[in-house]
Amino acid sequence: MSVFKPDDIVYRLDWRARSVQPGSHATRTPGGHADFRGFARFMDQPDPRRIDMRASLRQNPRQWMVRQYHERGAIVVYLIVDLSASMRFQGVTDKAALLRHIASSIAWSASRSGDAVAMFACDQKLREDCRVLPSARPGVAQQVWQQLLAVDTAQSVSADSLPLAVGQLRRKRSLVFLLSDFHVESALLARTLNAYASHDLVPVVLWDSAEYRQLPQWGWGRVRDMETGREHTLLFRPGLHRKISEHYEQRRAELRARCRAAGARAPFFVEDQFDAQRLTRHLLEGS
Amino acid sequence: MGAFGFSQPWMLLLLPLALLPLLLRGQPAFAYPSLQRLPVDGLSRWLEHAWRGLGAIAISALAVAMAGPYITGKSTEQVGHGAHIMVVLDRSASMNDDFAGQRSEGDKASKMAAARSVLERFIDRSRQDLLGMVTFNTSPIMVAPLSGDREAALAGLRATDAGGVGFTAVAKGLAMGLDSFRGKPVTGARVILLVSDGGAHLDGKTRDLLRASFHRQSAALYWIYLRDSNGGSLEQVPEEGNEDAYPEYQLHTYFKTLGVPYRAYEAENPQAVSAALADVARLKNLPVHYRVAEPRRDVAHYGYVLAALAVLVLLLLHLSEVKQWRTT
């Protein structure tokens, strides 16, 4: 994953975007000839090319009817990227590299389907040095890749600015991918989910199997919280393994429930490997 | 209970080092994204406390042990029963005489016979004692070494039936009797029971040797003086310039200067001998109270053992510590 080699994903919206740029998504903009909207009197929309003979014959009193359509438009796909200290975790895979791969894949796919892409990175504050403003030009995915590769996260601690990034988004409903490990406090999670409630939020949860499944078999070890620096001693044994994975399963269920409650899409869990086809399926099923 | 003390108290200055394991942070640890995701685990928490606590215990136990703690010995009072009695019996020729100073003729009991019969009863009664017997005339004979074997002593006593010969060498007999105490633990009063009918002149060197020996063995001396009509009394001060004629008086005065418990009994007839022995038996049967001071006990090894145990457990913990998160 050290080279820019994005995977293709496909996404669809289950809502009509407000867009004037031509693109592939259903919009509320009248016009075009893709999505049928309804019929109108010919006198209201005097376009003889749209005259519908059957509808005209059905009318009483007789009059000419024309078909109306919605335009297809492009949207802006936003990537909100969590750069907090916990995202530096290197377990089975390097989480930062995985994040880079997923973000650039989404950007690449969005770019290819004609949408604009923007990226905002968050740690304790909104990162100024790592962001891509909305743009539909080709090469924006490479830019996302390079920004995430070059970003210095040595000073990053928490992900407190995740809800603040919403201020950078345009007011119109957009598709927002939130890429994080979601190891955040409950209050911050609530604020984040509420902040993006007016958008179509796709939480992408990056977990590593070394966090909760591939633990040392026996023995004991100290672990240090990458964000708070607090230390903990763990006595590894089958009982603790079970406890930890149960805890993570609970967290998975909790995240699902809270995303549903906040009106976001179901979170997409990535463990070690990013499977673009799974994400595609997840996005199409959820839409 | 004895007092507690330290032989090198300044070593206790190292004691604050025990706080280091409790306070120090920054041991190597695995980075983990978020401890919030980890469940609360009681056993792990105990382990955390255990390895910090063990470090503190090891250091403090070592510091205390290096300070050299000790408990001063308490002195215990002990009561001794019975005595160690060496009978030093005169077998000189004069013991064959009776109390009248005549050579005994059958029916009249010689001094030896009187002493023997009384001693036999004395030996029979002294159940709790250790007994030994030395007889002497010109030179001493170890008849029965100091032991609980009464039969040996009685047999030695009966052997005196053969009659006495030679002179009275008191010093040699006493020396041999005292020698038999050497190297034995003092578990009861030590008594030299000298049964003799006369004294002997002791020169200065012998006197000093005997005195030193009495002191070293801390033995009491009972002298049963079988006095016949020819012998002088121990209490009667001889005339001026005539001291050498009364060696028993000289011996008596010397014994009084020994500095150990000493009593003399003058026995002029068999009944007196028996009375004197009864007196001796009563005296030496008095319970002996004495205080024994125990040496101070070094208890540093407890500290070292505790420290070693703590370090051992820490070593086990160190060996069981996970060095690598994943095996692959």
Q: How would you summarize what this structure contains?
A:
The complex is a heterodimer of chains A (287) and B (328). With 287 residues, chain A is of the alpha/beta class. Chain A has helices at 53-58, 95-112, 140-150, 186-195, 209-212, 238-261, 276-286; strands spanning 22-41, 65-73, 76-82, 116-122, 126-135, 175-180, 200-207, 219-225, 231-236, 268-271.
| CATH homology-level superfamily of the largest domain in chain B | von Willebrand factor, type A domain
CATH architecture call of the largest domain in chain B: 3-Layer(aba) Sandwich
The largest inter-chain interface, given as chain pair and residues per side, is: A-B, 44 and 29 residues
Number of helices of chain A: 7
The side-by-side strand order for the widest beta sheet of chain B comes to: 7-6-5-8-9-10
Domains of chain B, number: 2
Measured by DSSP, the beta-strand proportion of chain A falls in 25-35%
Question: What is the helix content of chain A?
Answer: 25-40%
CATH architecture of the largest domain in chain A: 3-Layer(aba) Sandwich
Describe this structure in words.
- The complex is a heterodimer of chains A (287) and B (328).
- Chain A is an alpha/beta fold.
- Chain A has two domains: 22-73, no CATH class; 76-286, von Willebrand factor, type A domain (Rossmann fold), CATH 3.40.50.410.
- Helices cover 29% and strands 29% of the residues of chain A.
- Chain A has helices at residues 53-58, 95-112, 140-150, 186-195, 209-212, 238-261, 276-286, and strands spanning 22-41, 65-73, 76-82, 116-122, 126-135, 175-180, 200-207, 219-225, 231-236, 268-271.
- In chain A, the strands form three sheets. Chain A has a six-stranded mixed beta sheet with strand order 5-4-3-6-7-10, covered by helices on one side. A two-stranded antiparallel sheet of chain A has the order 1-2. A two-stranded antiparallel ribbon of chain A has the order 8-9.
- The radius of gyration of chain A is 23 Å and the shape is elongated.
- The relative contact order of chain A is 0.15.
- Chain B is α/β, with parallel strands linked by helices and 328 residues long.
- Chain B has two domains: 4-73 and 295-319, no CATH class; 78-292, Rossmann fold (3-Layer(aba) Sandwich).
- In chain B, 38% of the residues lie in helices and 21% in strands.
- Chain B has nine helices and twelve strands.
- Chain B starts with a strand and ends in a 9-residue tail after the last helix.
- Classes of the chains: A alpha/beta (287), B alpha/beta (328).
- Strand 8 of chain A pairs parallel with strand 2 (30-32) of chain B, so a sheet runs across the interface.
